[in-house]
Amino acid sequence: MSLEQSWVESANARDHDFPIQNLPYGVFSPLDRPDAPPRCCVAIGDMALDLAAIEEAGLLRPGGARGVFAAPALNDFMALGPAAWEAARARLTDLLREGGARDLRDDAALRARALVPLSRARMHLPFRVAGYTDFYAGRQHAWNVGVMFRGPENALPPNWLHMPIGYNGRASTVVVSGTELRRPLGQLKGPDDAAPRLGPSERLDFELEMGAVVGVGNPMGRPVSVSEADEMIFGHVLLNDWSARDIQVWEYQPLGPFQAKAFATTISPWVVTRAALEPFRAPSPPREKPLLPYLHEPGPMLHDVRLEVALAPEGGEETVISRTSSRELYYSSAQQLAHHALCGCAMQTGDLLGSGTISGPERDSFGSLLELTWGGKEPLTLKGGARRAFLQDGDAVVMRGWAQGEGWRVGFGECAGRILPAPDFAG
Amino acid sequence: MSLEQSWVESANARDHDFPIQNLPYGVFSPLDRPDAPPRCCVAIGDMALDLAAIEEAGLLRPGGARGVFAAPALNDFMALGPAAWEAARARLTDLLREGGARDLRDDAALRARALVPLSRARMHLPFRVAGYTDFYAGRQHAWNVGVMFRGPENALPPNWLHMPIGYNGRASTVVVSGTELRRPLGQLKGPDDAAPRLGPSERLDFELEMGAVVGVGNPMGRPVSVSEADEMIFGHVLLNDWSARDIQVWEYQPLGPFQAKAFATTISPWVVTRAALEPFRAPSPPREKPLLPYLHEPGPMLHDVRLEVALAPEGGEETVISRTSSRELYYSSAQQLAHHALCGCAMQTGDLLGSGTISGPERDSFGSLLELTWGGKEPLTLKGGARRAFLQDGDAVVMRGWAQGEGWRVGFGECAGRILPAPDFAG
């Protein structure tokens, strides 16, 4: 097919993250105006298109008289629902494509106001996180962790092949890419210690995940089908579910992960829409056990998003330490959302569903250091010679993801974070 | 001591829930004006004092020029912090006490506007729930459930005596007393079944808890001491953590309770302030194992709140099926909050911390049907002869709580909910 091009030239570069086929949503403020309130945007090539400016100019008004884009979060726009998302995407595509509407392209003053170079934009958390739920839908990851925590005979929990198991995470510490985070303190207890001690985590890890962003919810008491769930999803982000393995192993029985995960979760600043990922749909793997009808998928519901993780010591160069794809998931976001609402749980605009760690079948495709170093026993060697079993202070973890077409891609940008030393605290 | 009296006569009745010593906060709208926006109030005797009216009249302005009470939630007021809470309490006490300020008492028009009989008020959820975390701090409950789920040799998890273990719950389904709820659907699997099936829970239960309401938070990455945590707590509510035991037993390993708890959590409409409960402070029980210093309490941090649970079949009369006290908890809310923030988790205005089920040592002081009927094997007989192992459709559960002085009490009102049949859904 002959691909649509944009008059924003940088969007047409081969394999750029943000071609006109992508148009991911974010929230930005101009670097040179630190007190300007954040507002919504889409990325096009190397630019952020300020949607509040476009809305104010009357070129796109999805909320009618009530504006939705002059806001520090996408929630008001997301809450308008799938028809509004589709209409906005069609209008933005027309405003930005070569040969499309001339309202923006030919208005030099509006262009100057509305198109801000990404190099001069500060990105914010793109939406208010209503609730954060983390699933466990990677088959290889569940197996790997199960072997290390419980041994091979109990590796895969008995319920795992019957439902997308998950747990409620902590929404207040979901942060945008680039936010630095403190190494967590917690109770640590080795298998031979008589009692726990208080200390900074010594087994600090990342988890490579995708996050699904719920655009519209369901009322309490009203479950939804997988098809309905799919329609409720506005888009997807990259997600790093930072984890403290030593805190986790001591606390997680019987109520699940808590402080081991609550200190930080990083997401990409860009929400890539479900519409942009549509050409990259992929089927779930064959079911090892039949699923109950409420989890049946009406069609392919995964996406083939290529993923990589790079690690850089302080002042050092990046080493890519894992490459995999979101095709490796066993359950789709739509299945997770349908399962989440099954009991009558009300889902809300701004809910974030972590996929669970995505690990491929090979050692260099695992999605966490726990797996890549097999419980810390086989450290990785980075460029420059540094060795890592788990993360050290000053380390930066950078995740990248993109769906690959032929010469073009739909990219997520980066999901990055750097570790600061633990706080000085004794109680 | 000679107790303060109010010129609102009903507040002076012996053992009334809402004397002038209480002044619990809530959110109401007048029954006879269904489209009036909800606003904040305190209860005094049989009346709700409309705080938006008091604020508008200039008698109490904790937020200065910016009003905080003409709002459908207490969050803006709570976010002002402990000094503002204390000043508001002092001012309200003075406005309402016999012999105090005459600004309200002597202004007939304002009194008529601002004092609304509770019988003509509809109560709403008192605050926007930012996050809901449920702990497991009842020693007897943890033991009872542990015996039933894992046997007596593994009843108390190894971490239990070292930290207040908890898990993140679902904030979107926290509802106010009086809200009806649908029996949840879920995956059910008996121990001898080859595979799970979809169905309405057959082991639907309540859990008797208290909830601590976080008034002000801490920044991400900054743990807090138990003393600081205590100051961050605005007040307490009664809490029913509805639970589906059959969904729970199949899903909860290894990630903890999820759909078994996510369908509904009911709280009382009244938030009883920490200040009102101050005279009822009680020490935690002796520590069976020494706690790490960050969990040390600077003084008595529990409260002696007497609790009871009543069950009424549809159209039938109430039977009180359990009586206990919040003194039975092993960890205080302040300890729970300090532990929650230990990893650097940001706590926020409106966070709700469930205490965990409160069970006393005797069979008739257990805080759930699971315990009262010992796993459903020994059903209760209600007045009128109905028997219950777990909840049936149409059943109402009513919790009540109060701290008892000599002839006076600080009460919470009711925390009530009724079960509707499961929704008709197959996927």
Describe, in plain words, how this protein is organized in 3D:
Chains A, B: GO terms for molecular function: fumarylacetoacetase activity; metal ion binding. Chains A, B: Keywords: Calcium, Hydrolase, Magnesium, Metal-binding, Phenylalanine catabolism, Tyrosine catabolism. Chains A, B: Residues 133-416 form the Fumarylacetoacetase-like C-terminal domain. The structure is a homodimer of 427-residue chains. In chain A, the strands form seven sheets. In chain A, strands 6, 7, 8, 13, 14, 16, 17 and 22 form an eight-stranded mixed sheet that branches. Chain A has a five-stranded antiparallel sheet with strand order 4-3-2-1-5. In chain A, β20 and β21 form a beta hairpin. The first copy, chain A, has two domains: 9-123, SH3 type barrels (Roll); 132-420, Fumarylacetoacetate hydrolase, domain 2. Chain A has helices at 51-56, 75-78, 82-96, 108-114, 139-150, 226-232, 245-251, 259-262, 274-277, 333-341, 369-372, and strands spanning 25-30, 39-44, 47-50, 115-117, 121-124, 132-135, 166-168, 174-176, 181-182, 185-188, 197-200, 204-205, 208-214, 233-240, 243-244, 265-267, 272-273, 281-282, 302-303, 306-312, 319-325, 352-354, 380-381, 387-388, 396-404, 409-420. With 427 residues, the first copy, chain A, is an alpha+beta fold. The radius of gyration of chain A is 22 Å and the shape is globular. Chain A starts with 24 loop residues before the first strand and ends in a 7-residue tail after the last strand.
